[in-house]
Amino acid sequence: MRAKRCVPFCTRLVPGCARLVLVLVMTAAVLLAPPPPLFAADAPDADITVPTVGRTWPVGLRPQVLRGWEPPATAYGPGHRGVDLAAAPGTPVRAVAAGRVSFAGRVAGKGVVSVELAGTGDPPLRTTYEPVTAVVEEGEEVEPGEMIGTVEATGSHCTVTCVHWGLRRDETYVNPLSLLPPWLLHRGPSRLLPMWS
Question: Whole-prediction pTM value?
Answer without folding.
Answer: 0.70
